[in-house]
Design brief:
alpha+beta, four-stranded antiparallel sheet
Length: about 750
């Protein structure tokens, strides 16, 4: 019996899935129900912060001030509006003093003060019609939220001659958390039906279209359970739930497209369902597993950063990627064994067939031929366009997430905007200097004088002394987090003092966050690049292709970063998109968006490269391999990208600016990667590099022969001048003669739905 006559090998995992498919599905159903129970209420246990470095000087100073001077950092502000009257009117003052006294008596509230008690000018609006009551709600983020829920109804609204609205950091965070949960539910209601319609167009069959949704739902519910467990041990950001939904649906669809298409090919070639699933798992299944690994590595890089905001996305992303891959490799094959040819039930492709030519991939063949004929033009032209689109990012300004993340009608945003516009010195935007160590009044006075002489200082208050600790409040001349305020942080930290000093405040937190990201960014980039180079080498056996993959993937993200600055920092399209531009980009967002978008870009890159590699191993013809690879995967990648973009746009309908930025930015990156980079730039560059694309030195070539990854079992690399040559059967062999790639020949039936979307 020859090599190609041998029946396909069946591994233990394939035997388990194909021998007991009902048991696999039943176990999955039980685990999913348990996940629903375990993950219930996960959003209520999540935080809405996490942008600060827990080991930074500003974090230490904040915690020390909370302990030594609990009244120093109010996080709750009641804006008291007297209407046309003055805040000094006796009736207004009497009511405000009553509210102040009542708030001071509430459980979980400390450090209550107000303009009417302290007479501080910073707590009185310049027009004299508004003033502030400031307090601090104690406890962790979750307890503060519960306390606010208890207090807000009784303090908000009309009280005699005044109207009270609620703001401050704790109100901003709590309102942000509530809005994110509401927006996520709305996004799912938008994304699911639209995705189902697109899947029906892609698959043709309504039954097949339901399979990716099922996988995505399993991955999302399982990830919620994982996140719920993590909240018992660490802080998790509520923003991560958006990524769970987006990646859960997006990757489930990617993987299901790949696997179902391969299964349909095997069935069309005459295989029985069990044999078709076995071949599918050995071929397309390997690519899915490889792709999931590359995406997980990109997301895992965020674990290197100290901010729990970023780490939360790593937790959610890794969990949802692995669960989506596991569901695609276990549940989907089991379902396909049971469905067999019924996977094509409710076939809607008949609605499109009469109006469409029969040949599959014609448009992509023409595209590949045109691109490779004009390879220098397309390589230079697309590169120039992508670089041009990314130029606005050179003017990026980093800031912190504040109330302007919320819609302009949100109560806490309205309060903070009144404070910014109408109160002197930006209350709450000052810097606090903690002084620790025994000191005399003269030493404190001398230090205060040195601070007041700094060029960026408007006013210095204090010190307030408690034992051997004291603190000063420093008011910058400009905005709370502008460049001058950030310079002032460094100047305060370098000012000589006869005691230990630590600086905190909004600008100090921003400076420390930027420093923490800058310190870890090279390590994160090195991790992503190194692992990507290794994995792509294991897939292709080439030295040049991994380098191309990293460079072109990074280039595909330029449009996203340029658009983020042009739209969300500079405020273009803020009206139609419904957000308030803070004039800066939150420091952690570019890191998050890079890791997510780079991973998704690698996902599509793996699909294309695996097909090109398989074709090259079969024919030894480099140009034909590139052309054939684009023909066979162009529609699949485009369909997957369009569907994922729809999910991300649904996430981008959020009323919270950071979530809107994340959703719309990644949607743009995905579309640019699939339609520009994979369709034009990659084939153009591979045409220019020619057969040298596949070169590898002898030691690496032998390493790949031993440890490399491959979808097909019939194609084997043969050493010769450093290039792989084919030892495979001719392309005319059937799938029973040799396992073919999931994007191989005979795909006209399996890809009929793709023509509908094209």
């Amino acid at each position: 019996m020859t090599e190609v006559d041998k029946p396909p090998r069946t591994g233990g995992w394939t035997k388990l899935v194909t021998a007991r498919p009902r048991l696999s599905l039943l176990a999955a159903l039980v685990l999913t129900v348990l996940a629903v129970l375990a993950g219930s209420g996960v959003a209520d246990r999540m935080g809405a912060g996490g942008w600060e470095d827990p080991d930074a000087e500003s974090t230490y100073a904040t915690k020390a001030l909370e302990h030594e001077f609990p009244d120093s950092q109010p996080n709750l502000l009641l804006l008291v509006d007297a209407g046309s009257a003055s805040v000094d009117d006796p009736a207004v003052a009497a009511e405000a003093e009553r509210l102040t006294e009542r708030l001071a008596g509430e459980k979980g509230v400390t450090g209550v003060g107000s303009y009417w008690v302290t007479g501080a000018p910073a707590l009185r609006a310049e027009d004299g019609h508004q003033a502030l009551i400031a307090a601090r709600i104690t406890g962790d983020e979750k307890l503060m939220g519960k306390t606010l829920d208890r207090l807000a109804p009784s303090f908000r609204g009309a009280h005699g001659p005044v109207e009270v609205t609620i703001g401050g950091p704790v109100a901003v965070r709590h309102e942000m958390q509530t809005i994110i949960q509401e927006d996520l539910t709305r996004a799912e209601l938008i994304a699911l039906p639209v995705t189902l319609v697109l899947l029906v167009m892609v698959f043709g069959s309504a039954v097949a279209a339901l399979l990716p949704l099922g996988i995505g739902i399993v991955a999302i519910l399982g990830t919620n359970a994982v996140l719920r467990g993590l909240t018992e041990f660490t802080d998790v950001s509520v923003f991560a739930m958006n990524l769970t939904t987006a990646l859960g649906l997006g990757l489930a669809i990617d993987y299901a497209l790949f696997i179902v298409r391969r299964f349909r090919e095997e069935m069309a070639a005459g295989a029985d369902p069990s044999t078709a699933v076995g071949t599918t798992l050995r071929t397309a299944g390997r690519t899915v597993l490889f792709s999931a690994l590359t995406v997980a590595v990109s997301l895992a890089a965020m674990l290197l950063f100290p901010q729990y905001f970023l780490r939360s996305f790593a937790y959610a992303g890794i969990a949802v990627v692995l669960l989506a891959a596991a569901a695609a490799l276990i549940l989907l094959p089991a379902a396909l064994v049971l469905l067999g040819k019924r996977v094509d039930s409710w076939d809607l492709r008949r609605l499109f067939r009469r109006a469409r030519p029969a040949r599959e991939g014609t448009a992509w063949t023409r595209t590949a031929t045109l691109v490779m004929r004009r390879a220098p033009f397309f390589a230079l032209g697309t590169t120039a366009v992508l670089v041009l689109l990314g130029l606005p990012f050179l003017g990026v300004r980093f800031g912190t997430a504040d109330d302007r993340q919320l819609p302009s009608t949100a109560e806490s945003h309205v309060v903070q905007q009144h404070i910014r516009d109408g109160f002197p010195g930006s209350p709450g935007g000052g810097l606090e200097v903690l002084a620790e160590g025994r000191a005399s009044e003269a030493q404190y006075a001398a230090y205060k004088e040195r601070i007041a002489e700094l060029p960026g200082v408007l006013r210095v208050d204090g010190p307030l002394v408690n034992g051997e600790s004291a603190y000063f409040t420093v008011q910058p001349k400009g905005e709370a987090v502008d460049a001058a305020a950030q310079r002032l942080v460094g100047e305060l930290r370098s000012t000589d003092a006869p005691f230990d000093t630590s600086v905190t405040g909004t600008a100090a937190v921003l400076v420390d966050s930027k420093d923490a990201i800058a310190e870890q960014l090279p390590w994160a980039a090195a991790l992503i690049v190194t692992v990507t180079l290794l994995l792509v080498f294991l897939l292709t056996g080439s030295v040049l292709i991994p380098i191309q993959a990293v460079v072109l993937n990074a280039l595909s993200l330029t449009a996203m970063f340029g658009a983020v600055v042009w739209v969300f920092q500079d405020g273009h399209l803020s009206g139609p998109l419904g957000f308030t531009s803070p004039g800066s980009i939150e420091t952690t967002l570019p890191v998050l968006m890079f890791c997510v978008a780079f991973g998704l870009s690698m996902d599509y890159g793996v699909f294309l490269l695996s097909r090109i590699k398989e074709e090259y191993d079969t024919t030894g013809d480099h140009n034909e391999a590139v052309r054939h690879g684009l023909q066979r995967t162009g529609g699949l990648i485009t369909a997957a990208a369009v569907i994922l973009a729809v999910v991300m746009v649904a996430i981008g309908t959020s009323r919270v600016t950071n979530t809107k930025m994340l959703g719309l930015g990644i949607a743009l990156a995905v579309v640019m990667d699939a339609m520009i980079v994979r369709s034009l730039l990659v084939p153009a560059v591979m045409k220019l590099t020619g057969r040298a694309t596949w070169w590898a030195p002898g030691p690496l070539r032998r390493f790949h022969e031993r440890f490399g990854l491959s979808e097909g079992e019939g194609a084997r690399p043969d050493r010769g001048a450093g290039l792989y040559r084919s030892a495979a059967p001719p392309r005319g062999a059937t799938s029973h003669d040799v396992p073919a790639d999931e994007n191989g020949e005979g795909m006209a039936d399996a890809s009929g739905g793709l023509r509908a979307i094209r």
